Structure formats: C-alpha cells, structure tokens
C-alpha cells in the first residue's frame, strides 16, 4: 500500500516536521493566526503557560530578569521556531519574557489543545519532545560556555549561534542585523557592552567580521569557530 504523502508546507516549523497529512491538518486546524506589533509582549516571565506560539514571520526576543533586576537576552526566535514550548509541555511557568522585536505573525495553540494533540498523535509528540530536548541541550551548552570558556570564545560562540538562528546570507558573509544588537551579544555572553565592542573591533581589523551601525557581518565563520573552540 502506498504511504500517504508528507506535509511539505515550506513555512511550517519544527512541530510539523515530517508529519503525515492527518496530524498536520489537525495541528493547522487547531491553530489561531495572530499578529503582534513590534514591542508587543507575547507573555511575561512567571506567567502560567496557557498558550504555545510558533513564529510564522518576524522575530521574537526571549529575555529573563534575575532577582537583582538585571535583564539577560536568552535567545531570538525566527520563522518556524516554537516559543514557550518547554513551559507548555512541562506545565511550568514561563521562565522568560517574549517580546516581538519586529512585526511578527504566529500560529497559536491553547495549552490544553496542544497537549491533547500530542496525546492523539505520536508524531506530534515526538516533534515536541525533540524540540524540548534541543532547547535543553542549548541551555546546557550555554552554561558550559559561561563557566568553561574565555571571553573571546564566548563571544565567538554567540555570534555563530545568532548567525545560524537569525542570520541572513549576504555578499560579504552572514549578516546579523537590527533588532539584534551588540548589547544583546553582551547579555548573551555575560560581559560588558564595551568588552564586546572592543573585541569586535579587533576582529574587524583581522577581517573576521564587518561592523555597521546596526549590523554585524560574520565574514570568517571557520576562524570564529576556531576561537569558539
């Protein structure tokens, strides 16, 4: 018997990866399409995990405030990324605040809806589990960077991660552009803005990066990977 065709919508993200038509249709039918203006909050740190979001277009910034009131940028989420997945699937409060960094459209599911779909369709459950596992590994890697690597290695690691997550290929290399800023890079590496600017300036003189007022172009990713270790 021939197998049912795979779902191949190019704009669908990780939750839809490799699904047969029935579970993909069930996911899409249950979703609500929402638009968020730049600067709009999707959810706050500590909120109950009532909804799961998947970015269709735009960019979402995740940040966390520690007990001393210091804010740290954790991650940027682009098209196809699930926002709030760990909290929703583990039924724990959102550990960070999610804000649209530019006009953003999303697919949205209520927590009860998406949990019911994971129970009904093992393939959706497998995709959800993989996504949560990938996020956990990324957080472990980041903790290891902060404790085991020097400043230059941490900055190189963050630039490469941002290039892979939200970068755009251009003639000179991979562009990381506004709304991602050097201050975000500083928060993600646990160093000061001035340290990031000084090191990036040195790398520009070496031809590793090209700096603009609102962008960083990664020109030599292999050399940055060597610095990142």
What key attributes describe this structure?
disordered N terminus; 8 helices; 12 strands; 2 domains; Jelly Rolls; single chain; alpha+beta; Arc Repressor Mutant, subunit A; 229 residues
Q: Can you walk me through this structure?
A:
The protein is of the alpha+beta class. The chain folds into two domains: 14-145, Jelly Rolls (Sandwich), CATH 2.60.120.10; 150-228, Winged helix-like DNA-binding domain superfamily/Winged helix DNA-binding domain (Arc Repressor Mutant, subunit A, Orthogonal Bundle), CATH 1.10.10. Helices cover 43% and strands 25% of the residues. It contains eight helices and twelve strands. The chain has helices at residues 21-30, 85-90, 111-120, 122-148, 151-166, 182-189, 193-206, 221-228; strands at 32-36, 41-43, 51-57, 60-65, 71-77, 82-83, 97-100, 104-110, 168-170, 173-177, 209-212, 215-218. Mean pLDDT is 90; it is low at 1-11. GO terms for molecular function: DNA binding; DNA-binding transcription factor activity. Residues 15-100 form the Cyclic nucleotide-binding domain. This is Transcriptional regulator, Crp/Fnr family.
Topology summary:
Blueprint: H1 21-30, E1 32-36, E2 41-43, E3 51-57, E4 60-65, E5 71-77, E6 82-83, H2 85-90, E7 97-100, E8 104-110, H3 111-120, H4 122-148, H5 151-166, E9 168-170, E10 173-177, H6 182-189, H7 193-206, E11 209-212, E12 215-218, H8 221-228
Helix pairs in contact: 3-4, 5-6, 5-8, 6-7
